[in-house]
Amino acid sequence: MALEVIASGQACGAEIVNIDISKPVSDSNAEIIYHAFLEHQVIFFRNQEITPSDQRRVCSIFGEVGSYNRPKDRQHPKHASDEIMLISNVVEEGKVIGAHPDGEMMWHTDTPYLAKPHKATTLYSVEVPLIGGNTKFSNQYAVYEALPNNLKTELMGKIAMNCYEFGTTVKTFDKYDRKKVPHHPHPVLRKHPETGKTATYVCPLMTEEIIGMDEEESKNILSLIYALQAEARFIYEHVWNIGDVIIWDNRCLLHARTDFPKEERRLLKRVTVSDNHPVMAA
Ligand code: SIN
Question: What number does the ligand 1 atom closest to the CA of 134 have?
């Protein structure tokens, strides 16, 4: 049967069916998959059984496999890796084996606190809770389009500071300590290098201020954008089954996680795709 792309019918997202990605993907299927990724921003395959090297091979359809920048001393010694990051609350030998173990995660894009944030991220689900722990995706092209025209104009050319303390899933304070955490400025409005479309590129977990703007005004504008990003009309929510492989475009999407019971095991394997510097929208 030929591979098929089935749109979620929501703000973004599509399922790709009739393909076993544990096997090498033909050039023509890779082209369809890449096109679906650009069009739908987040794509997924169900019922897969893949090894880490299969996951890396799938990533290579999208670009160069990215490095896992979490400090080694924060990784479980038995599972430490330069490429595969475990997202998990599973405990082995008294230590949790993965990052972001429990609960809700606020909206974010991956690694905007680096000069070259990751282009895309893949997650492969190995263990999932019976309830919750869903990953939500918010379409940042649509959020940009929904901004008032005067704000679109005001934000053109503006830069925001992105910071992150590893391990934070819900930010309940105003600012990270920039002397201690990685941080990097990026455009508030980003031009997607392949589609040419404009996307908002700020998020509540990591963006702290619009540089050069009055503090109160910066806070108000960011709050307005964050409220839009969380509106259901811009979101696709992925309910995980074991064996799902999902890949999303960090250049035009945010993602977040819903809460789930602490006592339920959750294990996902994450491999990223690297990128160049973000380009400012004009
Ligand atoms: C992440 O944001 O890297 C993790 C998402 C999830 O656990 O669903």
Answer: 8
C-beta of 105 in contact with ligand 1 (< 6 A) = yes
SS3 155: helix
Is the CB of residue 100 below 6 angstroms from any atom belonging to ligand 1?
yes
How is residue 15 written in tokens? 């399922």
CB 250 within 8 Å of CB 119 = yes
Residue 79 confidence (pLDDT) above 90 = no
Distance 3 CA to ligand 1 centre (A): 27
Does ligand 1 have an atom closer than 6 angstroms to the CB of 255? yes
Residue type for 190, please? R
Region class of 62: left (phi > 0), else alpha (psi between -120 and 50), else beta: alpha
Cα 119 versus chain centre, distance: 9
Give pLDDT tens digits for 81-127: 677 899 999 999 889 999 899 999 999 999 999 999 999 999 999 99
255, 260, 265: which to mutate for ligand 1, most atoms within 8 A of CB?
A: 255
- Say yes or no to pLDDT of 70 above 80: no
d(CA 106, ligand 1 centre) in Å: 10
Q: Is 183 in the pocket of ligand 1 (CB under 6 A)?
A: no
CA angle, corner 274, sides to 272 and 275, nearest 5? 140
Structure tokens at 198: 């404009």
Structure token digits, residue 171 = 């930010």
Bridge partners, 137 (sequence order): 236, 255
**pLDDT tens for residues 147-188?**
999 999 999 999 999 999 998 999 999 999 999 999 999 999
Task: Tell me, using a 6 A CB cutoff, whether residue 191 lines ligand 1.
Answer: no
For 45-60, write each residue's pLDDT tens digit.
Answer: 999 999 999 999 999 9
